[in-house]
Amino acid sequence: MRQQGPMASSPLRLKREHAIGKLSAFIRKQYGEQYQVRVFGSTCYGASSRDSSDLDLTIFDSERPYGIEPWDERQLPAIYSVNDLAKKLKHRGYLNVSAVAKATVPIGGSSNDDVPMQPQCINANCPHRACLPAAVKCTDPKTGVTFDVNINNRLGVYNTALLRQYCLLDPSLPYFLKVVKLWMYSRGLNSASGRHGPPSFSSYAITIMTIALYQHFELLPNLQADKQAILQTHFWEKRGGVQRKIDVRFGACKDWRPPQTARPLILRDWFDIRDGGFVDRPSEIPSIWGPPFPGTGNVVVLDPLTFKNCTHMISSETLAKFRRECMDMLNRMKRNKAWSTQLQDYVSLVADPEYSDYALTALRRTYFPR
């Protein structure tokens, strides 16, 4: 695995590299040399808060660099059947193998997203061109590394490249994200799947929210507004029965500098600006935002590439809990300044490679217990 951003601990990094290399060789042997395994997600920019986190992988199809285009009537190759991939992985000895059979709806289907796929649709020859299963979950038997593998969903890789660029502009961002995600997890607010209670915030949504906070304090620019693009491409996505072209474009803002009046972000800022909630949604959506503007849901956190609401599943009860937990944390920091100062000292140590693991352990056990 090519390491991007702050380095993971060497033993963990080597273990992951070995597991990914073995899986990549297996994929090419089974399906062909045109397939490449690519890593995406928070591990690529140093913001993974737990060493046990699953690794997100996508298998690039070199014959479909822009996804499945509307005019592409070729039969999909066998690798697009995650049932087939899951069977091969299980036969090879991978553990806990499961095909996550969800997809956007077929052409002419209903308007609901993420419709569970019927068994007859889970194959590469399905006449519904949009019926692509989401992923295969599996665990490498030797290293214990767990993967979430999808097929040619390049938007995740492009999003990761965008977020990594923000981390390069402000090296404090990945460490700040680690701490925030650790706190959210400790409060039962970092589980989009709902495996640990009601559906709450995904790590990706937390990342987008935190970058917005940095931008609010003028500590980061808007990379998508940079006219000198370092990545410019597109990808065809199917959602809600509609196939659409997603334009991907962002720059590095090489000449950007934060204003002299800007100060470094501290943990209290995150809870303070969230105290009481979010920016109220306008009663009338400006025409430049739509149509359709994805403003449904109790919380709206937009994906910077697709403008999909990353928090559409969050209930009013979960939102109320989030506000309450932020307010409780903020009040505790205001009441006990010594405790708050010590907490911030541990947060600062997360950025120090020599003390990072120690600081995260202390935060997990002492300050953010579950």
UniProtKB/TrEMBL annotation:
Domain Poly(A) RNA polymerase mitochondrial-like central palm: 15-107, 119-167
Gene3D superfamilies from the UniProt entry: 1.10.1410.10, Beta Polymerase, domain 2
GO BP annotations, alphabetical order: negative regulation of macromolecule metabolic process; RNA 3'-end processing
SUPFAM superfamilies for the chain: Nucleotidyltransferase, PAP/OAS1 substrate-binding domain
CDD domains, sorted: NT_PAP_TUTase
Domain of life according to the entry: Eukaryota
Pfam families per the UniProt record, alphabetical: MTPAP-like_central
GO MF annotation list: nucleotidyltransferase activity
UniProt cross-references to PANTHER family, sorted A to Z: POLY A POLYMERASE CID PAP -RELATED (PTHR12271), POLY(A) RNA POLYMERASE GLD2 (PTHR12271:SF40)
Protein name, as recorded: Poly(A) RNA polymerase mitochondrial-like central palm domain-containing protein
The organism of origin for this protein: Trametes cubensis
Lineage: Eukaryota, Fungi, Dikarya, Basidiomycota, Agaricomycotina
